[in-house]
């Protein structure tokens, strides 16, 4: 018997509203339908009304967990448009905060995976260790979330020696705890029974469906923007791209824990080799006309910002392609043939950051193939006309 | 006079009031141990050390609005929480704490009462199934089917492992089994395998991690309890608490040599032994993650049932040696 | 694969102090440089309006009360403020900035309008920079 079960928009498994309508046959999922748009806030339109400096804070608030990723991608693009380059010390501090953010995001994900699997003790322990990173970030930048350490032309604050010592001590503690979690993740039998062979995504599928980040790296695709197209200081910092060939949720867990260990090494390298000097240069108010595409490896995958400027102090167009958007197609492939009990885990394994992924879409007319951007007021008027004449029936099924 | 005494027996001690107080105390103990194992505080501010937190939760739930879904079977929906509470409270009457006079089989201690207790512990599972089924919402139906699927897994190992010490003691009366092991404490040791199997099966019966699939919050919202709210939910939660006390009491009576020592000392024994078993159950809850319902059934039939049968064989061999 | 790999760690935690702070009965310490609410040192402000221009949330409002007497009023709308401290960075006065940040983070109120702070002040005169000391 085919039944349609809705997960979302409101559901305890989801941190943000998204609607997954699954067709199930007993406990096996046969089809999945993904509906987006519940978290749309109009960030791209608002960015056209604010100056470049104000946009740093706006792009930061696209997401809470990967806030520094969006701000840094934007600032990297703006600096290229203005043809200035941040001084070395500023760049080192900027990417130090990037790696600290990667650590905090992966520890958060480990806790969420534990909670979705029912392993609450693991969740409590990883989040307790995440507090170490949050306190370090508060010490460096003044706030635990939305660090706002970037400015056009470098960073706003400098690091002094007591802060550097505290960061290094924090890394020692965290390294010990992460190695313990690697052992637990691989050895606790009930946990691995939930994670193994769940959400299988083969290597060919990962490449064909454009999966990014740890989702694709767990399917043995060696793709990392920091190695393929190094930006900032990543050409100088030694690290390895972490992959796993398990192709399932357990592989993604292992990849993220390995990335944690790599980040600890990178932070220690950055701190030991911190060059002296100024931390920012003076940036002009206006950007020369042009367009730029800025890439960045966020904790969830490849983050792309496209900025177009026209000579004024406000950007003409900002387009954000967050990594979770690229992983949606792979998610639908993974959900088919899975069990209902595995839905939260499969969905959590791509590390969804739905608020990053809600941007404007274009409407394509299927019959004539022409594209048009529809104004919201026109859509509203069309909807009012349609629903005035429709009789109300309970439990209406969504037309596909 | 006898009527008043019976009424006090049923309503105050060891009746509803005592069960209410003791089961909320056990829930507090479970939550505090679970929190301390996870490096957190647990309930802290309601009452000294948070002792009144489960009572506060109960009172809060009683005061909330009661919503019944349109399509639900109203009489069944409304009656089930009360039935459940009545069944587990009646099962609690049969524990050999407050009826230790061996010579006099009374209405609460008679030959065969271990079977009655086990039967009364299976009924709540059926009630959960009916509660989920009568709710007619999608998530409740999934939760209800999962409850029954799990029942096929753990029921047989539970019965086998709890009945093994009874076989060794040669009686189906809880008070006599407890008395037997009090006379010969060394015979508790061969039953340890059964104790472990029974602990795991009881954890599955109480629907706690790793077996809390029927009401797994992140998967099926509330499972069987999705549509329940207000007073009915309060009764269901009280029912699960009392079920925990009854199961712990049953395990302590059968595997840990009961509660010797008369009225006061026996009661102290009861508290200590049930809290020990609840500590072990909380430890199991903190230790593992949830497993899928098909994995529960395969785990139960691949590991628990053979171990329970092994325990039965050990008991038969020892009985042969002793006689 | 070990059964109960987690067990020794769990039991060790039974005897450790909990990691949770008993807030609000015990307060938390914030580090130096914490970004709390912004406020003004009115005697140093030269009314260049850089903070008003750069604020992403339009939370600073500077109006002239009386041009002739150089009397200005600044209102900081703390209900709109996003605590980014860009106003501090944009403020050009030296050696001490006119905009400053305190470390208060418990600023909840029942009425949004109770969170506004106002100052009325006379525009300060920017002191001319001292001539550079001759190199020795």
Concise account of the structure shown:
Chain B is 70% helix and 0% strand. Chain B is mostly helical and 323 residues long. The model of chain B has no long low-confidence stretch (mean pLDDT 87).
Please give a structural write-up:
The complex is a heterotrimer of chains A (400), B (323) and C (136). With 400 residues, chain A is of the alpha+beta class. Chain A folds into 2 domains: 66 residues, no CATH class; 309 residues, Cytochrome-c3 Hydrogenase, chain B. Helix content of chain A is 48%, strand content 14%. In chain A, strand 6 and strand 7 form a beta hairpin. Helix content of chain B is 70%, strand content 0%. Chain B is built from 12 helices and no strands. In chain B, helix 2 runs parallel beside helix 11, helix 4 packs parallel to helix 10 and helix 5 packs antiparallel against helix 6. Chain B starts with a helix and ends with a helix. By secondary structure, chain C is of the alpha+beta class. Chain C has a domain of 91 residues: Alpha-Beta Plaits. In chain C, the strands form 2 sheets. In chain C, strands 2-3-5 form a 3-stranded antiparallel beta sheet, with no helix packed on it. The longest helix of chain C has 7 residues. The mean pLDDT of chain C is 83. The chains are: A alpha+beta (400), B mainly alpha (323), C alpha+beta (136). Chains in contact: A-B, A-C, B-C. The interface between A and B is medium-sized, with 29 and 26 residues.
User: Which regions of chain C contain 5 or more consecutive residues with pLDDT less than 50?
Assistant: none
Shape, principal axes of CA atoms of chain B? globular
Helix content of chain C: 10-25%
Could you give the count of β-strands of chain C?
Answer: 5
- Number of helices, counting only DSSP H or I runs of 4 residues or more of chain B: 12
Strand order of the largest sheet of chain C: 2-3-5
Rounded to the nearest angstrom, the radius of gyration of chain C is 24 Å
Structural class based on helices, strands and sheet pairing of chain B: mainly alpha
Mean pLDDT of chain B: 87
């Amino acid at each position: 018997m085919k039944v349609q079960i809705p997960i979302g928009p409101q559901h305890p498994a989801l941190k943000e509203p998204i609607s997954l309508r699954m067709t199930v046959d007993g406990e096996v999922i046969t089809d999945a339908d993904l509906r987006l748009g519940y978290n749309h806030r109009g960030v791209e339109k608002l960015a056209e009304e604010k100056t470049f400096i104000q946009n740093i804070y706006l792009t930061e608030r696209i997401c809470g967990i990967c806030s520094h990723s969006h701000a840094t991608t934007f600032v990297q693009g703006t600096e290229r448009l203005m043809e200035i380059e941040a001084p070395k010390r500023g760049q080192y501090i900027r990417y130090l905060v990037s790696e600290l953010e990667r650590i905090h995001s992966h520890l958060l994900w480990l806790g969420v995976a534990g909670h979705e699997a029912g392993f609450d003790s693991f969740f409590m322990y990883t989040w307790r260790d995440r507090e170490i990173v949050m306190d370090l970030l508060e010490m460096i930048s003044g706030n635990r979330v939305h660090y706002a350490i970037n400015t056009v032309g470098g960073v706003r604050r400098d690091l002094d020696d007591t802060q550097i010592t505290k960061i290094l001590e924090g890394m020692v503690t965290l390294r010990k705890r992460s190695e313990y979690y690697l052992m637990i993740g691989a050895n606790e039998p009930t946990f691995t029974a939930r994670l193994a062979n769940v959400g299988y995504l083969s290597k060919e599928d990962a490449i064909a469906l454009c999966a990014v980040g740890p989702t694709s790296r767990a399917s043995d695709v060696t793709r990392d923007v920091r190695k393929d197209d190094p930006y900032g200081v990543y050409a100088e910092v030694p690290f390895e791209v972490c992959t796993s060939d398990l192709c399932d949720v357990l592989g993604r867990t292992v990849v993220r824990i390995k990335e944690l260990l790599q980040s600890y090494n990178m932070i220690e390298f950055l701190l030991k080799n911190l060059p002296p000097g100024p931390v920012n240069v003076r940036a002009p108010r206006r950007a020369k006309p042009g367009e730029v595409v800025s890439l960045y490896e966020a904790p969830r995958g490849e983050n792309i910002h496209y900025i177009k400027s026209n000579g004024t102090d406000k950007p003409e167009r900002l387009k954000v392609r967050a990594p979770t958007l690229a992983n949606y197609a792979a998610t639908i492939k993974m959900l088919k043939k899975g069990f209902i009990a595995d839905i939260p885990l499969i969905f959590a394994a791509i590390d969804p950051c739905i608020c990053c992924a809600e941007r404007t879409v274009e409407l394509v007319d299927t019959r004539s193939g022409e594209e048009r951007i529809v104004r919201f007021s026109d859509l509203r008027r069309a909807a009012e006309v349609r629903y005035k004449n429709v009789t109300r029936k309970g439990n209406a099924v969504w037309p596909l | 006079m006898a009527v008043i005494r019976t009424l006090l027996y049923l309503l105050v001690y060891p009746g509803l009031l005592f069960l209410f107080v003791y089961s909320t105390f056990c829930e507090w103990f479970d939550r505090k141990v679970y929190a301390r194992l996870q490096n957190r505080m647990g309930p802290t501010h309601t009452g000294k050390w948070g002792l009144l937190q489960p009572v506060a939760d109960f009172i809060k739930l009683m005061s909330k609005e009661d919503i019944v879904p349109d399509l639900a079977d109203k009489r069944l929906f409304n009656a089930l929480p009360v039935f459940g509470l009545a069944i587990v409270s009646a099962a609690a009457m049969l524990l050999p704490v407050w009826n230790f006079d061996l010579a006099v089989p009374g209405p609460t201690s008679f030959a065969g009462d271990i079977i009655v207790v086990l039967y009364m512990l299976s009924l709540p599972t059926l009630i959960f199934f009916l509660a989920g089924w009568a709710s007619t919402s999608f998530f409740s139906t999934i939760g209800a089917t999962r409850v029954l699927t799990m029942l096929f897994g753990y029921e047989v190992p539970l019965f086998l492992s709890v009945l093994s010490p009874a076989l060794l003691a040669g009686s189906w009366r809880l008070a006599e089994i407890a008395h037997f092991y009090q006379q010969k404490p060394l015979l508790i040791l061969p039953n340890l395998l059964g104790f472990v199997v029974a602990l795991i099966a009881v954890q599955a019966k109480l629907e706690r991690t790793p077996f809390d699939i029927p009401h797994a919050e992140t998967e099926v919202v509330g499972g069987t309890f999705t549509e329940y709210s207000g007073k009915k939910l309060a009764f269901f939660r009280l029912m699960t608490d009392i079920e925990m006390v009854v199961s712990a009491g049953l395990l302590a009576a059968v595997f840990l040599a009961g509660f010797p020592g008369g009225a006061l000392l026996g009661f102290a024994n009861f508290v200590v032994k049930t809290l020990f078993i609840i500590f072990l159950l909380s430890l199991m809850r903190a230790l593992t993650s949830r497993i899928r319902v098909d994995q529960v059934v395969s785990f139960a039939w691949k590991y628990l049932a053979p171990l329970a049968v092994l325990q039965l064989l050990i008991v038969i061999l020892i009985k042969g040696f002793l006689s | 694969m070990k059964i109960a790999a987690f067990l020794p760690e769990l039991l060790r935690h039974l005897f450790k102090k909990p990691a949770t702070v008993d807030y609000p009965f015990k307060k938390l310490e914030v580090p130096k440089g914490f970004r709390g609410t912004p406020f003004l040192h009115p005697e140093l402000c030269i009314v260049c309006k850089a903070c008003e221009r750069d604020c992403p949330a339009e939370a600073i409002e500077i109006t002239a009360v009386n041009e002739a007497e150089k009397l200005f009023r600044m209102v900081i709308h703390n209900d709109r403020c996003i605590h980014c401290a860009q106003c501090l960075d944009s403020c050009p006065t030296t050696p001490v900035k006119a905009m400053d940040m305190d470390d208060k983070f418990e600023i909840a109120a029942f009425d949004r309008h109770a969170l506004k702070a106002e100052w009325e002040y006379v525009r300060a005169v920017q002191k001319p920079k001292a001539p550079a000391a001759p190199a020795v």
